[in-house]
Write a structure and sequence with these properties.
By secondary structure, this protein is mainly β. The protein has a single domain, classed as Neuraminidase, CATH 2.120.10. The chain contains no helices and 20 strands. The strands form five sheets. It has a four-stranded antiparallel β-sheet with strand order 1-20-19-18, with no helix packed on it.
């Protein structure tokens, strides 16, 4: 199978036009608070964890309309400033990861109340988590995907905490996203700012650059990848076109497109 990495510019627009490409920003909305460092998506909603930093509310998880970005509600994360990642389990649950001590918890998606949890011993959990699930099969969560530093590693655990698999990462990646259509894990990273797709076995599939200071959170739903930036304002959530990436041929030339950012 021939897999080609695509490197494209990003254009902000109202919707994905015909011929939209991987990495094309089709919409964006402002974060409701400072430092949006983790994301999860249910399809109609995007869950966003914001550290807060200089202004309240601190350490809140917001539920936003995935089309308009309108704030539909929020709650304080049970892990406060130790919160690192979010993952949505189709069926109505939110998974939240904690840095120290490293563990993940299955929570009520509207209040953050913890139902169950398990420790992650393979790495520091400084990156984040994603839920390996499929909206067409709610209740059949395959794994909790996590990543972190010390060492740079991605792991997959059952919901009870048993290790399924792991692979080494080349550098520090942030809060990942599970792409159930393409069967890959998307990892945002800075220096340079880009998003990378890996198989669950650890093979790099493709990547694209994103023009923001420090991409931090990622989530996937309905052919779109959501990515948030942190580090420096303005704090934005980008909605990015994410089509089928397998068996794609590299274009003979990629025209220069001026990037427009809010």
């Amino acid at each position: 199978m021939k897999v080609v990495s695509l490197f494209v510019s990003a254009l902000v627009g109202a919707a994905a036009p015909a011929g939209a490409y991987l990495g094309q920003i089709v919409a964006s909305f402002n974060s409701p608070a400072y430092n949006p460092s983790a994301l999860a998506a249910s399809g109609d909603s995007v869950y966003l964890y914001c550290y807060g930093r200089y202004m309240p509310p601190w350490f809140h998880v917001f539920r936003l309309d995935s089309t308009t970005g309108r704030n539909l509600g929020s709650f304080q994360s049970p892990f406060l400033d130790d919160t690192t990642g979010l993952g949505y389990e189709y069926g109505g649950y939110l998974w939240i990861s904690r840095r120290t001590p490293p563990y993940v918890a299955r929570c009520d998606a509207s209040s953050g109340s913890i139902y169950s949890s398990f420790p992650v011993t393979q790495h520091s959990l400084g990156g984040g988590i994603a839920c390996q699930g499929d909206p067409t099969r709610p209740g059949t969560l395959a794994a909790i995907i996590s990543c972190g530093s010390s060492p740079y590693l991605s792991t997959r655990h059952t919901t009870a905490g048993s290790l399924l698999s792991s692979f080494a990462l080349p550098k520090y990646f942030r809060d990942p996203a599970w792409d159930y259509r393409n069967g890959v894990i998307w990892f945002p990273a800075s220096r340079p700012s880009a998003v990378y797709a890996y198989t669950t076995a650890g093979s790099l599939v493709t990547s694209f650059p994103i023009n923001c200071y420090s991409p931090a959170g990622a989530a996937y739903a309905n052919n779109y990848l959501y990515v948030s930036n942190t580090g420096n304002p303005p704090y934005i959530v980008y909605k990015i076109h994410c089509p089928r990436i397998w068996q794609r041929e590299a274009p003979t030339s990629v025209g220069r497109v001026k990037a427009l950012f809010r």
